[in-house]
Amino acid sequence: MIDFGRFYQQIATGPLSHWLDTLPAQISEWKSNELHGGFKSWGKMLDNLPSMTPTYLDLKNSVTASRDPELSSGETRRLNNILEQLKPWRKGPFSLYGVNIDTEWRSDWKWDRVLPHISPLKGRLVLDVGCGSGYHMWRMLGEKASFVVGIDPTQLFLCQFEAVRKLLGDDQRAHLLPLGIEQLPALNAFDTVFSMGVLYHRRSPLDHLWQLKNQLVSEGELVLESLVIEGDEFQCLIPGERYAQMRNVYFIPSAKMLKVWLEKCGFVDVRIVDQAVTTLEEQRRTEWMKTESLAEFLDPNDQSKTIEGYPAPLRAILVARKP
């Protein structure tokens, strides 16, 4: 069983200490009632994974760890086999001691679009909402963030994160909690909050923006990345049952409308810093994620549309400040 005790100890003093009023009970309930059917076998894979201390570690340009001397071919095969048991790997890529996890998403490309536009993360306390397997959390540490907390209720992602952590020398500067943003109290503690790829899954997007604001210190920075459509501040797509085969997509505003939403929630200095169409090179099927991906979600005769006839995925990055 994954142990959160070390995280509790780390936050016992400092700006997150009041989180301990609610968090241990939530985690205890999660352990008692909400474990996924595959969690036990994923936990076994974690137990079988060797602890590693890298000789070489790069979190600045990638998530890469290697050792001198290198692993033997047999050790590499064993490592590869264990990590394959944690498929599908959606966010990455990772290069770990000769095992290259080619994930569905080239999350490094998104990071390259985000990084030039945000305040330096050096020394910052950071929250990553809907963090997936935690790829971007490691890149945040590569930018010298002092401490990174990720939240994501998907339990496979938690196990993937813990597997990577074990292979990066049991790094305790980052922690992933199996929670959704709605389970967090108003912590008002983080210098930077990221919400990337979450907003369109929320039934009440303005509530989500308020929840994000409530995690930030005064003068803290929100980095918001989401699906958008082309158009002015009055344009918003409300898809039917599915959008690009996803069931739980509720609102896809234009980037300009999203800016208005942020201002409505009291954010200031709101900037649209990037818009990019998601390409078949950025999101695709791989050996580490073999089910359907973007190519199957687009109209085969017109890739500017989803299979349902909506505009194809366009993503925007906005940066805003809590006054």
Features:
10 helices; single chain; 323 residues; CmoB; alpha/beta; EC 2.5.1.-; 28% helix; Rossmann fold
From the spread of the alpha carbons, the general shape counts as globular
Spatial sequence of strands, sheet with the most strands: 9-8-7-10-11-17-14
Mean pLDDT over all positions: 97
Q: What is the strand tally?
A: 17
Major pleated sheet: 7 strands, mixed
CATH class: Alpha Beta
Order of helices and strands: HHHEEHEEEEHEHEHEEHEEEHEHEEE
The structural class is alpha/beta
Low-confidence runs: none
Give the distance, in angstroms, between the N- and C-terminal Cα atoms.
Answer: 41 Å
Radius of gyration: 20 Å
* CATH-defined fold name: Rossmann fold
Number of helices: 10
Fraction of residues in β-strands:
15-25%
* CATH superfamily heading: Vaccinia Virus protein VP39
| Count of the domains | 1
The level of helicity is 25-40%
Proper CATH architecture: 3-Layer(aba) Sandwich
Overall description:
- The protein is an alpha/beta fold.
- The protein has a single domain (39-322), classed as Vaccinia Virus protein VP39 (Rossmann fold).
- 28% of the residues lie in helices and 24% in strands.
- The protein contains 10 helices and 17 strands.
- The chain has helices at residues 5-11, 23-33, 39-48, 73-84, 107-114, 135-142, 155-167, 205-213, 255-264, 294-297, and strands at 56-58, 64-66, 91-92, 94-96, 99-101, 105-106, 125-129, 147-151, 174-177, 190-196, 216-228, 236-237, 252-253, 268-277, 298-299, 302-306, 314-321.
- Strands 9-8-7-10-11-17-14 form a 7-stranded mixed β-sheet, sandwiched between helices.
- The longest helix has 13 residues, at 155-167.
- It is globular.
- The protein starts with a helix and ends with a strand.
- The model has no long low-confidence stretch (mean pLDDT 97).
